[in-house]
Design a protein that fits this description.
about 350 residues; Oxoglu/Fe-dep_dioxygenase_dom; 8-stranded mixed sheet; binds 2-oxoglutaric acid; 10 helices; Jelly Rolls; globular; 4-stranded antiparallel sheet; alpha+beta
């Protein structure tokens, strides 16, 4: 019998089997033998190109990746190797702190702005996920940084610096994505109100039977764009043309994906794509997604220039991000799009 522990990291090392609440039905398992491992299938862009004569063609390529894959990777993004190493280091150190120290931050309330938790939403989900996570609101930084863990001692400084830089990167990417849609460079960021930025530090302990469970099951991201940093342990998989494809981590690059709000703004030209995290029996894994989001009161809907009533009727009704966000957390991670209930009736039933 496994000893009940709030956090998976404190349970995982005591068991040599996956406890029953983590076991997925046989129809919903990672099925490793069917996962494709094509290296480099997600385009990798050199962001130095945004500052030179090739800006226009790079923006076209980014737009094409958003349309075809919903995912792309970036290098030469302006975030130093040192900061990336430090961010991964303090994250790992945090999850290696004694249980009593980590539990100071524990909460099961998804609306809390700083919290350590486990799985996805322990209050609503049927099966648990092989993951612990520290979730931090990050913007405006001065409103939240005092809530963040103060141990390891450099955590706030390093993670604060990292958030400032990922925010800058998100803004550059949103400008490029706006332009790729034929919108004003500032359009998307302007549509997000004061906007928000959240970060999750995902910790996936080694798992004795990785074929029975997920770190995170297939889901689409609720926000605008996600900028994912991963350590060198593979685990991210993306659904492409009905097949799961493993994304091999490339050191010091970020993996960027389109979230549901960008799908809405683009009136479905760009797609928020299913992705998942699988675990392995050998090594712990850390991944750190930065979620760039609208403000809770921002009204989301298709950008008017992309929603003419003849060729491209608006697919979504307007809604506030807070309406959407509550729905996202309460229903648990599901492969069905959370956006369906915000579709205009005539398109939903079409
Ligand atoms: O761990 C990963 O690679 C994916 C993480 C993710 O999809 C998430 O936190 O929403």
């Amino acid at each position: 019998m496994a000893i009940a522990k709030p956090l998976l990291s404190d349970l995982a090392s005591t068991v040599n089997y996956v406890p029953s609440n983590y076991i997925r039905p046989s129809s919903d398992r990672p099925n490793f033998s069917e996962v494709q491992t094509s290296d480099g299938f997600i385009p990798l862009f050199d962001l130095q190109g945004l500052d030179g004569p090739d800006r226009f063609s790079l923006i076209q390529d980014i737009g094409k990746a958003c349309q075809d894959y919903g995912f792309f990777q970036v290098k030469n993004h302006g975030i130093s190797k040192k900061l990336i190493d430090e961010m991964l280091r303090v994250s790992k150190e945090f999850f290696h702190l004694p249980e009593s120290e980590r539990l100071k931050n524990y909460s099961e309330d998804p609306m809390k702005t700083t919290r350590l938790s486990t799985s996805f939403n322990v209050k609503t989900e049927k099966a648990s996920n092989w993951r612990d996570f520290l979730r931090l609101h990050c913007h405006p930084l001065e409103d939240y940084i005092q809530e963040w863990p103060s141990n390891p001692p450099s955590f706030r400084d390093v993670a604060g610096e990292y958030c400032r830089h990922t925010r800058g990167l998100a803004l550059r990417l949103l400008e490029a994505i706006s332009e790729s849609l034929g919108l004003q460079r500032e359009y998307i960021n302007g549509a997000l109100g004061k906007h928000g930025q959240h970060m999750a530090i995902n910790y996936y302990p080694p798992c004795p039977q990785p074929e029975l469970t997920y770190g995170l099951p297939g889901h689409k991201d609720p926000n605008v764009i996600t900028i994912l940093l991963q350590d060198d342990v593979p685990g991210l998989q993306v659904l492409q043309n009905g097949n799961w494809v493993a994304v091999k981590p490339i050191p010091y690059t970020f993996t960027v994906n389109i979230g549901d709000q960008l799908q809405v703004i683009s009136n479905d030209r760009y797609k928020s794509v299913l992705h998942r995290a699988v675990v392995n029996s050998m090594e712990e894994r850390i991944s750190i997604p930065t979620f760039y989001c609208p403000s809770p009161d921002a009204v989301m809907g298709p950008a008017p220039p992309l929603a003419d009533h003849h060729l491209h009727p608006p697919i979504y009704s307007n809604f506030t991000y807070s309406e959407y966000y509550k729905h996202f957390w309460n229903r648990g991670l599901a492969t069905e799009s959370c956006l369906d209930i915000f579709k205009k009736q005539e398109t939903y039933h079409a």
